[in-house]
Design a protein that fits this description.
This protein is mainly α and 361 residues long. The protein folds into two domains: 23-50 and 260-361, no CATH class; 53-254, no CATH class. The protein contains 13 helices and five strands. The strands form two sheets. It has a three-stranded mixed β-sheet. Strands 1-2 form a two-stranded antiparallel ribbon. It is globular.
């Protein structure tokens, strides 16, 4: 779904989620107020950042497709040398990692599709997202339905991604965080379509069924044409690695935060440029939740604009840094938001940035 602005450039607009209106979520007014507070005075800049850049998106997507293809070919070349050729172990490891990073990016590209920011046209946005889903066994529409519930109900008991909504026992809740890291993604692959079907209207239910038929046809063709042993090394092992990258990223985004506070519900990691690029700049997750209609390639600029204005945030400089703090907090089951920074929104606006209070790995 898109609108057309000056110069007929498409403006990204998140598709309206099916089901109850946003107004039925008790936390919605808080998030709307936080959004207004951050947007005040920079409306023109934010409007420009909502514009989609099809060339930039195609370039990003092409790069990660090439990374997946290159990693697969490198891995295949290493496999051809035989199991006894240790000199080919490095290409196999490098190829597997490249393919895993690419699959992780495909998941993030589909996430863009859920917000209508992958491509401007509805058909292109949907079917490119469906094609991306074939690389990690998930229907686009089922994922979109559940993800939009997460955005609508963040800070609300109906948020499907907040484990505190399911478990009141503190030790069990902490155990669930670890289950998320270890097996959570595999559970999601099974549960997301089931829950999405339950929360969908008739149109989305039909889309989910069609997309799983497409996935089944693709996998049937793939497994009939490629030996299972080859698929294990060229696709399934990289897929497992990408799954755990996703689990770490997912825990970092909202784990050990404060869901009721829109500024502390989502964590932004100020990662180095390479990591940020590989994550399509989704490391700026607070910025994404405040302005989900802005495409990912503009999130770094959103971060630059709003960071000096924030009153508080949960943040950090690396994913390893977050994990280290998370493991340390486990010993005490300490629910204090990890990486909380009181930023005095605006005091350092003249400097154009706010320094993190130091935890860096």
């Amino acid at each position: 779904m898109s609108l057309v602005g000056q110069g007929d450039a498409p403006l990204a607009v998140s598709p309206p989620p099916p089901g109850p209106a946003v107004a039925d979520a008790p936390a919605a007014p808080l998030h709307a107020a936080a959004r207004r507070q951050m947007a005040g005075g920079i409306e023109t800049q934010l409007a420009a950042l909502r514009r989609l850049d099809a060339r930039k998106r195609a370039g990003e997507l092409g790069l990660f497709v090439a990374l997946f293809a290159g990693g697969t070919m490198l891995n295949r070349w290493g496999l051809g040398a035989g199991s006894g050729a240790w000199s080919h172990a490095l290409p196999r490891i490098a190829g597997t990692l490249c393919a895993a990073v690419a699959i992780n990016a495909f998941i993030l590209f589909m996430h863009e599709g859920m917000h209508g920011t992958l491509f401007g046209g509805g058909l292109a946005n949907r079917w490119v997202s469906v094609a991306l889903g074939t690389t990690f066994c998930l229907s686009f529409t089922s994922y979109r339905v559940m993800h939009q519930r997460h955005h609508r109900y963040l800070g609300d008991p109906r948020d499907p991604d907040d484990y505190a909504n399911y478990i009141g026992n503190r030790p069990l809740l902490w155990a669930m965080h670890y289950m998320r890291l270890i097996v959570g993604v595999y559970v999601y692959i099974v549960m997301i379509p089931i829950l999405a079907y339950r929360h969908s209207g008739p149109a989305d239910r039909r889309r989910i069924l069609v997309e799983y038929v497409v996935l089944a046809a693709v996998y049937a063709a793939l497994f009939s044409a490629v030996p299972a042993g080859l698929l294990l090394y060229l696709w399934l092992i990289p897929l497992v690695l990408a799954a755990h990258m996703t689990a770490i990223r997912g825990l970092t985004q909202h784990g050990i935060a404060e869901a009721a506070d829109p500024f502390l519900a989502s964590r932004s990691i100020q990662a180095n440029a390479v990591v940020a690029f590989c994550l399509l700049h989704e490391n700026y997750h607070l910025e994404h939740h405040l302005f989900p209609e802005i495409p990912s390639y503009h999130l770094a600029e959103v971060h630059r604009l709003i960071w000096p204005r924030l009153p508080r945030a949960v943040t950090g400089r690396s994913y390893l840094g977050f994990l280290w703090r998370f493991f340390a907090a486990t010993l005490r089951m300490d629910d204090t938001p990890i990486g909380r920074a009181d930023l005095d929104g605006g005091k350092d606006r003249a400097a154009g940035r706010v320094e993190l209070i130091g935890w860096e790995v």
